[in-house]
Design a protein that fits this description.
Layout lengths: L1 H40 L1 H4 L3 E4 L2 E5 L44 H18 L26 E2 L1 H6 L1 H8 L3 H10 L1 E2 L10 E3 H13 L2
Antiparallel strand pairs: 1-2, 3-5, 4-5
């Protein structure tokens, strides 16, 4: 009986010591080591790819924002589109998009309405947007509903509106878009893209410098 109790106590003691050691190792030392390496090697990414303006963090280059007025470049539509959308305001607590098929009547209606709005908002006295020129990302959300980027085609479509509203030349605004257009990752992954937040910060600086 005494041997049984002694063996049990020994096993419990060994288990508790192992628990303590592993807790310190995997719960304290390892996370601190990984964090230290991350901060040393790529601090920007380790801190959430923060984007700063006027010395303040205004967002992340990995997460889209909405709510820009027409003096600025617009993002992709929020996740889902329509009344029953999944993510209507780029809220981080919810990520996703509509599961409706391409031939769903509601989705077709929402896309057509979004296209008409893009045409109306971006047409100016000297420039008329054709519905056929509206790219897909201007009227559809991304799979996550949080895409921070738009296509160069959608950015170019907005150039005339921006130039007219902000008193800039079309050439200067287009150059701004070109300067903020990123190519395919490693030259073959994905598509060329423009980060809307970073582009709008640069646009604001351009307007201030006039």
């Amino acid at each position: 009986m005494n041997n049984s109790v002694t063996n049990t106590a020994r096993l419990l003691g060994a288990g508790l010591r192992a628990l303590l050691v592993l807790t310190v190792l995997t719960g304290v030392i390892y996370p601190l080591a990984v964090t230290g390496v991350a901060q040393a090697v790529f601090p920007g990414r380790a801190n959430g790819s923060e984007v700063k303006s006027d010395g303040k963090v205004v967002g992340s280059s990995l997460i889209g924002q909405q709510g820009y007025d027409l003096d600025y470049f617009q993002s992709r539509p929020a996740g889902g589109l329509g009344v029953n959308s999944v993510n209507t305001q780029y809220k981080l607590i919810l990520s996703g998009a509509t599961n409706r098929s391409a031939d769903n009547p509601d989705l077709i209606k929402w896309v057509e309405e979004a296209k008409a709005k893009v045409v109306k908002d971006n047409s100016t006295a000297d420039y008329r947007v054709s519905p056929s020129d509206v790219p897909a990302d201007a009227v559809t959300s991304s799979g996550s509903g949080l895409d921070p980027d738009i296509s160069p085609a959608y950015a170019d479509l907005q150039v005339h509106r921006i130039a007219e509203r902000d008193g800039l030349s079309v050439a200067r605004v287009r150059k701004l878009v070109d300067d903020h257009t990123e190519g395919r990752t490693l030259g073959f992954i994905g598509e060329p893209r423009v980060n809307v937040l970073e582009l709008n910060i640069a646009l604001r600086e351009l307007i201030r410098g006039q």
